[in-house]
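ping. complex inputs:
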Amino acid sequence: MRIATWNVNSVSARLPRLVDWLSTREPNVLCLQEIKCATESFPIDEVAELGYEVAAYGTGRWNGVAILSNIGLVDLQRGLHDEPGFQADDALVPATEPRAIGATCGPLRVWSVYVPNGREIGHAHYTYKLAWLRALGATVERELAADAPLSVLGDFNVAPTDGDVWDISQFTGYTHVTQDERDALHALDEAGVSEIYPRALKYEVPFTYWDYRGGAFPRNMGMRIDLVYGNAPFTGARSDAYVDREARKGKSPSDHAPVIVDLDL
DNA sequence: ATGTCAGCGACACGCTGA
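pong. complex structure:
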């Protein structure tokens, strides 16, 4: 079985690449982030032609997550348990954003997650990010009550260690590498899941994101922020895991590359 | 290289978010 996660930075803008990628990599389950469309606007017909069912959760311009599966897609859950919302400057009340969707795909329980960016240290969005990660940990704890293989995959917007960015000295005072963020991420380990560390197909560290600007990809100025967590039944079934950096090449790529995990399941 | 993209409102391009 093959499962993957990919922040596509707009499923509409990436549709030709998504269709091509699905037909060549043939994952059984694909978690998407930043679909940037409403649930009802997801191009389900195009992926249905390739044999995939779709569970999407989006509201439009920003965020949005989805799960594609060709091995079944049931027991959907949109949003985390007790998920915090974000209060935009022009909003009267905090709004829940489409950042997490869970589903059961064959033998797997799967969550596709898009953790808030945080913007700047001390920003309200940064506080929201930390609270959101804690809510994810609490949701994972509840999900672990079942014994099925469980995986939580997506764009975590946190580099787990200093070695997971191209040059840690460039990140002083910035988000994604702070102790607070890493502590919040660690709540997942405490909840009972651990990370699958993928192979790099080139260079030392399997980066998953490279900024569009400044030729960051060819210069390998990347970050490893797209992560795959699982319980023991999931991680123990791993036969391979790697970052598909080929998908970051060429014309009109996403700024993220997919992470692929192969399982003996 | 202040170096890129994507979506939106509104139909030109500035704004927002990443």
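The mean pLDDT of chain A is 96.
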